Amino acid sequence: LARKLAVVNQKGGVGKTTTAINLGTALAAVGRKVLLVDLDAQGNASTGLGIDRAKRDRTSYHLLVRASTVGATIVPSAIPNLDIIPASVELSGAELELVELNPPQRQLDEALRPVMRDYDFILIDCPPSLNLVTVNAMVAADAVLVPLQCEFFALEGLSQLLSTVDRVRRTLNPKLEVQGIVLTMFDRRNRLSEQVADDVRAHLGAKVYDTIIPRNVRVSEAPSHGRPALLYDHRCAGSQAYIQLAGEMLRRERQR
Amino acid sequence: LARKLAVVNQKGGVGKTTTAINLGTALAAVGRKVLLVDLDAQGNASTGLGIDRAKRDRTSYHLLVRASTVGATIVPSAIPNLDIIPASVELSGAELELVELNPPQRQLDEALRPVMRDYDFILIDCPPSLNLVTVNAMVAADAVLVPLQCEFFALEGLSQLLSTVDRVRRTLNPKLEVQGIVLTMFDRRNRLSEQVADDVRAHLGAKVYDTIIPRNVRVSEAPSHGRPALLYDHRCAGSQAYIQLAGEMLRRERQR
Ligand SMILES: Nc1ncnc2c1ncn2[C@@H]1O[C@H](COP(=O)(O)OP(=O)(O)OP(=O)(O)O)[C@@H](O)[C@H]1O
Ligand SMILES: Nc1ncnc2c1ncn2[C@@H]1O[C@H](COP(=O)(O)OP(=O)(O)OP(=O)(O)O)[C@@H](O)[C@H]1O
Ligand SMILES: [Mg+2]
Ligand SMILES: [Mg+2]
Hints:
2 copies of one chain form a homodimer. With 256 residues, chain A is of the alpha/beta class. Chain A is built from 13 helices and 8 strands. In chain A, strands 3-4-2-5-1-6-7-8 form an 8-stranded mixed beta sheet, sandwiched between helices. In chain A, α1 packs across α13 (237-255). The model of chain A has no long low-confidence stretch (mean pLDDT 97). Chains A and B meet through α2, α8 and α11 of A and α2, α8 and α11 of B. The structure holds adenosine-5'-triphosphate (ATP) (2 copies) and magnesium ion (MG) (2 copies). One adenosine-5'-triphosphate sits between chains B (12-18, 40, 44, 128, 184-185, 213, 215-216, 219-220, 223, 238) and A (11-13, 128, 151, 153).
């Protein structure tokens, strides 16, 4: 049965999409079958995996509002073992439509049931907010993976995020846990990065991955070629870090 | 009468809050009376201006859902001529409450009317989405100011943002225009920055500010001290760029 992870953080630009794409690719590269669900109206995960706008016919929006079966939304990516459910702009209006469905928070969970046996991992890339779309992802997920940019504003939002996870666990999804916190865009030259990393480890200890994702320009160039960093330049520091992260994640999953 | 600018971009982490805080401070420093409205549930603009969590009693959330007068929400900042309406976490649920008010899109516009004569500029810091809260900001505003990070994913979202501005102008606020696009986190060492800047100027010409905000670590350190970069280190490249941006903005406003 697929292990479902929601990649969440309401702070914008912290590396959610980049982590979902590259971690997904690294897991697929070691033979795990992976489904990436793009839940962000911007559709960055779909673009980063080279899915043409023309192929985003049936999307995660249609899935959420029950306008499509999950089978009709799944598109293979250029990477073996990695499929994606693309996103579309209609997602930015999804909150007001979800609220009319019953129950509004469980639409994604129910919609993904038919494909649970087809994948080892389902990664859900969330938008930068704690709205009903993100809550749907947290209800469908077994755990949350939190990319955390090594910056002050990103640190400030962490307690709000963790208390939302607690609330969803208490009221909607008792199995939901924090799978891990991944430090991203770490810059060795910048004292602030070090301070944030130390601060987070002091508060959250073993929940914080050992693997740190460095700031690395090749990572931000890759999406303009429609390819994950792992394919665009697998030798670069960013790609190597995501390969290491996948390894550490699989170890954590075995020890569960 | 105050000139109202909504600082918008649904892409996360592009420098909306940093621009609202530092542009607001630079305008206040040259004698303009400025009100900063923090519309993001994360409350980063409130923190970046050193507003204690304890002082965020009546917030922009209360203003939106008509639970407070505007006068009761305004808090002076440590900077002369700069006031702020702080944000609170309840904003992440505001969309579902706004929908029950009539008309849902004009709540902020109506709420700000009583203070229009008290300020020269009102800057509205928006959350990273195109939801009803951001639409409220676009309906209240005379123009939008768009911070654009010099990265590929940020460029991808620009056309969606500009078509949303067009839609709001056609249906809700005929005066709404694009005041300008500010290139942020520009890194001279990174070819991608140059490519994005050239691309945006080719498409949008004079709408793009001449002033470019460089990536500058002092800018990202300032919020942890609760002070704008202009006060934390006014000689750094980031602060100087925001001072220059304020000057260019005032020139644009005079030429209107
Ligand atoms: N390790 C890295 N090194 C350099 N750039 C990075 C790295 N990770 C991500 N980026 C870049 O930083 C920007 C933000 O990353 P990304 O879009 O993945 O964040 P996000 O959290 O998904 O954003 P949003 O909140 O808008 O969904 C992107 O332009 C991306 O290419
Ligand atoms: N010119 C700059 N140089 C270096 N760091 C910067 C610069 N501008 C902003 N930052 C940092 O980048 C991060 C993102 O900026 P900011 O929070 O202002 O973006 P935002 O668009 O308001 O994000 P959100 O979408 O979450 O509201 C912050 O940690 C900020 O301190
Ligand atoms: Mg994203
Ligand atoms: Mg912000």
